[in-house]
Amino acid sequence: MARDTTDFRPIEGVDELVAYLAEGNKPREQWRIGTEHEKFPFYVDGNAPVPYGGGRGIRAILEGMQQKLGWDPILDDGRIIGLVEPTGQGAISLEPGGQFELSGAPLESIHQTCREGNAHLSQVREIAEPLGIRFLGLGGSPKWSLAETPKMPKSRYEIMTRYMPKVGTRGLDMMYRTCTIQVNLDFESEADMRRKMQVSLKLQPLSTALFANSPFTESRPNGLQSWRGDIWRDTDNQRSGLLEFCFSPDFGFADYVEWALDVPMYFVIRDGHYHDMTHITFRQFMAGAARNEVPDGLPTMGDWANHLSTLFPDVRLKRFLEMRGADGGPWRRICALPAFWVGLLYDEAALEAAEALTASWTYKEVLAMRNAVPELGISAPFRNTTLRDVARDVLAISRSGLKNRARKNRDGYDETSFLNTLDEVVARGTTSAEEMLSAYHTRWGGSIEPVFMEYAY
């Protein structure tokens, strides 16, 4: 998230929080695609991490991008920590370890998404390459220890860094050493949100498997295909993971609100200052628990919006749905991730087929799949088959959905070609992570250094 929200409207009751989510309902013709992707900056000389400051640091990249794009700076205590397009059509932000993120504009087609991503990568290379910096498209930092990883000067991350070790063993790794590709999608009603939430929660482990791309940690194989996926198994299970209550046939906005109310907060912002609120839940905040702790210690709608952004389930509900299961990856994967989910969720016939395929899948089965995928990828078992076979069926549904959408580029091609990189995974029977491991044990000669060339932007 590029910029934390400021909205001073007071909250009168829980109904307003439910209504806030329901305001996301949009007619089908207004549905859009918002794609986010993160990448690790590194110095070409030595494949070392890039700090925030200095003449060749991340701040210099942001300042160069600001000058090139004319976007507005996002400041935290006077330091530039991101950029936002003046009309809200996209933003650039920093993750805790310097991961460089584009939060894309809401677009109508995957063709536009791909052009946007290509333009961003071209622009950031133009600024970064004279500084001796390139970017790595992986799901996990392959070389640097946590101690070697830079820390970005962003107030919310200081609060999270103190809090994470109290609630899980992997939170700091998640913050500082992982990258993702994510797509944000719309719904037209509460019922439509429910359908999309349930299908996408059930299929999120498959997404993790297809995009598995983080097999190295601190210069060695880590025994996993998606180290990032494994990290999310013990980051902060109060606010993350697979939400069982969402599997209910009558799940709705109010259920998500009730869950979110009882998750500990991270912060509130008052007069530009971040106040640590990790000791209370949002429900306690609404009951007046911070009345004497912070200025204006009663909750606002801005506080609620920020709180929703600090929840990390596999599919996150805000006024849209966020698909959060995939590892970061190379350019083709940036286009493939939104294509996968748009094909499944934005065409009625495809959504019905995905619902039918997953209708009998139970929470326990999906949880077992989620737990197996980080190690086994598409070879993970499911019932009497493997995820590789499930992937064939799901990709066929997604392809049919994209074909039915019939969004064509100037050359007359529809969006189905963006699934080709995932078709290759299924046809080979090996994930990107397994391909890297094979290279490590053969032509890379037991070194991870070549990954900085072969998977760099």
UniProtKB/TrEMBL annotation:
It catalyses: L-cysteine + L-glutamate + ATP = gamma-L-glutamyl-L-cysteine + ADP + phosphate + H(+). It comes from the Bacteria. Its EC number is 6.3.2.2. Pathway: Sulfur metabolism; glutathione biosynthesis; glutathione from L-cysteine and L-glutamate: step 1/2. It is an enzyme of class 6 (ligase). GO terms for molecular function: glutamate-cysteine ligase activity. Pfam families: GCS2. Keywords: ATP-binding, Disulfide bond, Glutathione biosynthesis, Ligase, Nucleotide-binding, Transit peptide. Catalyzes the synthesis of gamma-glutamylcysteine (gamma-GC). Homodimer or monomer when oxidized or reduced, respectively. PANTHER family: GLUTAMATE--CYSTEINE LIGASE, CHLOROPLASTIC. Belongs to the glutamate--cysteine ligase type 2 family. EgtA subfamily. This is Glutamate--cysteine ligase. It comes from Mesorhizobium abyssinicae.
